[in-house]
Specification:
Blueprint: H1 3-71, H2 73-80, H3 85-105, E1 109-116, E2 121-124, E3 127-129, H4 141-145, E4 151-160, E5 169-179, E6 190-197, H5 198-203, E7 214-219, E8 224-226, H6 241-249, E9 253-260, E10 263-272, E11 277-284, H7 285-288, H8 290-321, H9 325-338, H10 353-364, H11 366-390, H12 399-405, E12 415-422, H13 431-449, E13 454-459, E14 464-470, H14 477-499, E15 503-507, H15 517-528, H16 531-534, E16 539-541, H17 554-569, H18 572-588, H19 593-613, H20 630-633, H21 637-661, H22 666-678, H23 686-693, H24 697-708, H25 712-730, H26 735-741, H27 747-758, H28 762-776
Parallel strand pairs: 15-16
Antiparallel strand pairs: 1-2, 1-6, 2-3, 4-5, 5-6, 7-8, 7-11, 9-10, 10-11, 12-14, 12-15, 13-14
Length: 779
């Protein structure tokens, strides 16, 4: 072999390996750098979330203690006491003892101040001051007197350590809460300020990294709450560019790059929702990118080493790589033509023998790979079809090639989708039985469709099947639907004869491209939902559904509520009059037939729902009457009016018969008597009634609803509201007392339920009743 050829080969391999190593190194650096930066960002944000959790836990604990303080009798006496100096000193002493106990029990609390706006009295530790000018920490008092909320977190401020001996100050974060906790405007009587040690709060965020990473907290107005630099506490930094960006973002958390103090940095932030603060973490890019820089430097060292090793290996390998080329090519040709190596073939003795053996193994395993591909086809087929039907697939470039590979044969145009499901699914003993029936149904559908056209069926969840049909000959859309209906009828008859089951089929409108088949399938699903009106064992085409754009006849649709109302009350005369008035309005407005069909559907749907709500069996009521066939059967509007009247009268008679068969249940009468005697119990429930009467919860619930035509919860709530109205009218009891007399442990729940029942809060109701009584008094 000539040295020139060897040199060229060595140079070629060296350049190729150099390019490969360089490309692999660059791609590795790019991928690792991207992943590492994401991990670093996620790590910093997760650290902020952990700090948020710790802060929120601590702040909630202090707020809970503050609420408990305001509910204590000592605080209530302090804010509500009359101006009697002797008794007041005793009240102040007790309140002061309570404050000292709370401060001593919580290491985060520095001090607690209470101030009465009405009495102009201030209590802080052992100091009780009558003159608001006599104590130093009064910054929070008067601004909070007109504050609209019930609590507020003040920016970090400096307060005296001792209210008696000034001169020594420390930083605190203050929580201010009103007394009472909830009150109407103008009735605020006082407030409490809990001063929290700033240094203890900062300790929660001071362990998040080296000193080059600065972590601090600002409030919604941009005031610094916590910071390593104590000179910045309480300072307004809202105009700082990166702080302004955080405040204006409105996001609960995030990060961005920004030059902080002329140093390129990454800014991370997370919201402390409980106090309306933001935790801000500033990390210099140099610090953030240290792991990335280390990887880059490592690659700079590793790549030259790999290049030198590759060059040396290329020179060595090139010396013997050309000699066995001819034998290698001969071996490859032999395996390509024979597909399988001979069982007794010897291992080549030259240097490329191991490569030949690898190729032999790859060729010998081709059958196994082919078998695995065939086993995966059903799953891939299901995935492709579900993506097409749900419009989840984003690329249709090679969809036809995938369909051919998976054995899905469809014509390119003239496509229609069907949705099929078994009726009365509850009759199947096991969900697996329903899935087996659905699998068999898909096979039957494909066989019947492919007899004259091309189609495919796929099993979906809950025993439903989706079918795609395609037609060879181009025909009008109406004729395509007729063909689809004919095929659907064949499938339905086959299932009825051989499975002894019934199915319902929805058919969408034809489309011309496979990427639009999801539109037809959506229409098929919508059409299938109308089997509730048209009855089971039906074929429903989307073309038969009610038209859209019928808002102009909203009064006619609203009139159906009056008709069903008369049906509910059992007033036959009123219902007949309303039906006659309804059809007169339809005739007067010249309503198009499609709109009439939809009006009839809505009236029947509401009637059916009313029967369901009253527990009346509606079997056979609507199944015999397909509303979309009525106009074809009756040519005059008065004939259609008579038919609708007969249907609704049939429903009314069923309601009357149901109510006539109802007998009063002695147990439920006892339950009602027990409710009337014990409605004020907070634990009154179906479980309590079941224990009291020795019956099951489900039995009492069913019998109660059967007799009273409402459930237990609604009845108890309405009975309590009736008692509440009586108490509010006949007594001067406070709202909380009324709530407790009725069995509500939470006054807010009582107020919310009362307002939902009457449209007014208890206070508004009482004021209105008082006004009515005053108006009735003769002057």
């Amino acid at each position: 072999m000539h040295n020139g050829l060897l040199k060229k080969t060595a140079i070629t391999f060296t350049v190729l390996l150099t390019v490969v190593v360089a490309v692999v190194a660059l791609m590795s650096y790019w991928v690792i750098n991207k992943q590492l930066r994401h991990q670093l960002v996620d790590t910093h944000l997760e650290l902020l979330r952990q700090v948020d959790d710790k802060l929120e836990l601590m702040l909630k604990s202090i707020d809970k203690s503050t609420i408990k303080l305001l509910r204590s009798k000592e605080a209530i006496h302090f804010f509500e006491a009359e101006r009697q100096e002797g008794s007041y000193q005793e009240i102040a002493y007790r309140a002061n003892s309570m404050l000292e106990d709370l401060v001593n029990s919580d290491d985060y609390i520095s001090s607690i101040d209470m101030f009465s706006f009405v009495r102009q009295r201030f209590l802080s530790g052992a100091v009780t001051v009558n003159d608001t000018e006599s104590y130093a920490d009064k910054q929070w008092i008067y601004p909070f007197e007109s504050y609209e909320g019930f609590s507020d977190w003040l920016p970090t401020r400096r307060v005296p350590i001792d209210e008696v001996r000034f001169g020594s100050y420390h930083n605190v974060v203050t929580l201010v809460r009103t007394y009472p906790l909830l009150h109407s405007p103008g009735s605020r009587r006082g407030a409490v300020a809990v001063n929290i040690k700033e240094d203890r709060l900062y300790a929660l965020i001071d362990d998040l990294g080296p000193s080059s990473m600065n972590t601090f907290i600002v409030d919604r107005e941009g005031h610094v709450i916590l910071d390593r630099d104590k000179s910045r506490l309480g300072r307004d930094v809202s105009e700082t560019p990166y702080i302004r960006r955080i405040l204006q973002s409105g996001a609960p958390e995030g990060h961005f790059g920004h030059a902080v103090n002329e140093v390129a940095s990454a800014v991370f932030f997370a919201e402390v929702a409980y106090a309306d603060w933001y935790i801000v973490r500033v990390v210099p890019d140099m610090q953030l990118n240290q792991p990335v820089i280390a990887i880059r430097n490592g690659l700079f060292v590793l790549v030259p080493i790999l290049l030198v090793i590759a060059a040396l290996l290329t020179i060595v390998i090139s010396r013997w790589s050309l000699r066995p080329v001819q034998g290698f090519l001969h071996s490859i040709s032999r395996h390509v033509t024979a597909h399988h190596p001979q069982s007794g073939s010897a291992v080549p003795s030259y240097e490329f023998g191991y490569l030949e053996r690898a190729v032999e193994n790859m060729v010998s395993s081709s059958e196994q790979l082919h078998q695995q591909m065939n086993e995966s086809k059903p799953i891939l087929r299901w995935q492709l079809l579900t993506e097409l039907l749900s419009n989840y697939r984003r690329s249709f470039t090679n969809v036809r090639a995938y369909m051919d590979m998976l054995g899905i044969k469809l014509y390119e145009h003239q496509l229609v989708a069907m949705a099929i499901e078994f009726d009365n699914k509850a009759e199947f003993d096991q969900p697996s039985d329903l899935r087996l029936y659905a699998y068999a149904l898909c096979n039957v559908a494909e066989e019947l469709i492919n007899a004259e056209n091309l189609g495919v069926a796929v099993e979906l969840e809950d025993g439903a099947c989706a079918v795609i049909m395609s037609f060879r000959d181009p025909v009008e859309a109406e004729q395509q639907l007729m063909r689809a209906v004919s095929v659907g009828d064949l499938i339905k008859n086959y299932v009825s004869d051989n499975f002894k089951r019934t199915i319902s089929i929805g058919i969408g409108l034809p489309v011309d491209d496979i990427q639009d088949i999801h539109l037809s399938y959506g229409q098929a699903i919508e059409a299938l939902s109308y089997k509730m009106i048209m009855g089971q064992d039906a074929i429903i085409a989307y073309d038969d559904l009610p038209p859209q754009g019928i808002t102009a006849y909203h009064r006619l649709f609203a009139a159906t509520d009056q008709i069903t109302g008369a049906l509910r009350t059992g007033d036959a005369a009123s219902m007949k009059a309303l039906i006659a008035k309804w059809f007169d309005a339809i005739a007067a407005q010249n309503v198009p037939p499609p709109i009439i069909r939809h009006l009839v559907v809505q009236a029947l749907m509401k009637a059916a729902n009313e029967l369901d709500d009253l527990g009346v069996d509606r079997e056979g009521l609507l199944a015999r009457h397909n509303p979309y066939e009525m106009l074809d059967r009756y040519e005059r509007l008065d004939e259609l009016e008579g038919l609708i009247g007969r249907i609704l009268l049939d429903a009314l008679e069923r309601i009357r018969a149901k109510r006539g068969r109802r007998e009063r249940n002695a147990v439920i009468d006892q339950v009602l008597e027990y409710i009337h005697d014990n409605y004020m119990r907070s634990d009154l429930s179906l479980n309590l009634l079941a224990d009291q009467f020795g019956l099951s919860v489900s039995y009492i619930s069913k019998q109660f609803k059967e007799q009273q035509e409402c459930n237990f919860i609604d009845y108890l709530m309405e009975y309590r509201m009736e008692k509440a109205r009586h108490l509010l009218q006949s007594s001067d009891a406070k709202i909380r007392e009324v709530s407790e007399r009725l069995g509500y442990t939470n006054v807010n729940s009582f107020v919310r339920i009362f307002k939902k029942s009457t449209g007014m809060t208890p206070t508004e109701f009482r004021e209105k009743q008082t006004t009515v009584r005053q108006d009735d008094i003769p002057s």
